[in-house]
Amino acid sequence: MTGKVNVSLIQFDAKLLDAERNLARMQAVIGAEAKRGARLIVFPELSNTGYVEPLTPGAPFSPESGGADQYAFRLFQAAEPQNGPFLTSLCDLAHEHSLHIIAGLALRHPVQQGVMHNASVLIGPAGVLGAYHKIHRWHMEKLYFVTGDSISVQQTTLGPIGMQICYDIRFPELTRALMLQGAQIVTNIWASFRSNDKPLEDEQIFIHRAYTRATENGVFFLSCNRAGKQGDCAFMGRSVIVAPDGRILAQSSSEDEDVIRAELDLADVARYRSHVGLATDRRADIYARYLTTPI
Predict the structure, then answer these.
(1) Can you tell me the distance from the alpha carbon of 197 to that of 178, in angstroms, rounded to the nearest whole number?
(2) CB atoms within 10 A of CB 287
């Protein structure tokens, strides 16, 4: 692929367990960004349900969660069923505006009642193209979501796209696996937060992480975090779009709701990789001696 793609990352405040309200807001944003020429629109982790409760081990449940006795079932009720109204609406909008959408969603298991995935879903004009189920679950997520077990790249008219979610970025093998399957665009959707009484120590932390994954793989890396507050924590925003050579194409310096936009020239992938030699210089035969032994 050598085309150009206009992308919009939506730094969005998803309200806890209020899928109907969250969908209405996402519908409005999709319409507005489509008018601006966006071909790929990305929303953060768990945009339909809000992030899990409690946010940290030992923290209290927020009042709107229903508390420890009710929250897990209420989360399942808010999660999207197979062919549910949330996905149906996003598919209709993708078709109407001839664009692609990536949304972080809590998805119900298609067979097992009460079982959920933390997912990143890719939707195109013809419908759902694929879903990635989060492999590396952060802290309290392990109470509610089963782990994913596959890594894949979706072929789209925009180019090959790979997906990951939040904590996944700390495991470089995942982005490398996507690159080796041909990904040229990799999206990471977040619900990354801090305590209200602890300011962010490194204002550039999301840039550091995205820059590293972009340049070591020669991909466009789209890092879309959420905004807003939940309990005694604030989501840190600071979404960023990084080119294969590490150029910052767009970024938010805010924890507030925001939209960042950029044009991706997919020819930059081949331009960077052919110069740097990521494929010719790899020594997978040597790495394999050490990477197959579990800790």
Answers:
(1) 37
(2) 12
Contacts of 207 (CB under 8 A, 6+ apart): 238, 240, 242, 248, 251
pTM of the model: 0.97
CATH number, domain containing residue 139: 3.60.110.10
Comparing CA positions, the residue from 122, 116, 91 lying closest to residue 104 is: 122
Which range of residues forms the domain containing residue 18?
4-291
| C-alpha–C-alpha distance, residues 201 and 214, integer Å | 23
Give 25-37 as a DSSP string. Answer: HHHHHHHHHHHTT
CA–CA gap between residue 47 and residue 43 (Å, rounded): 7
Q: Into how many domains does the chain fold? A: 1
For 93-130, the three-class secondary structure string (H helix, E strand, C coil) is HHHHHCCEEEEEEEEECCCCCCCEEEEEEEEECCEEEE
pLDDT tens digits, 68-117: 999 999 999 999 998 899 999 999 999 999 999 999 999 999 999 999 99
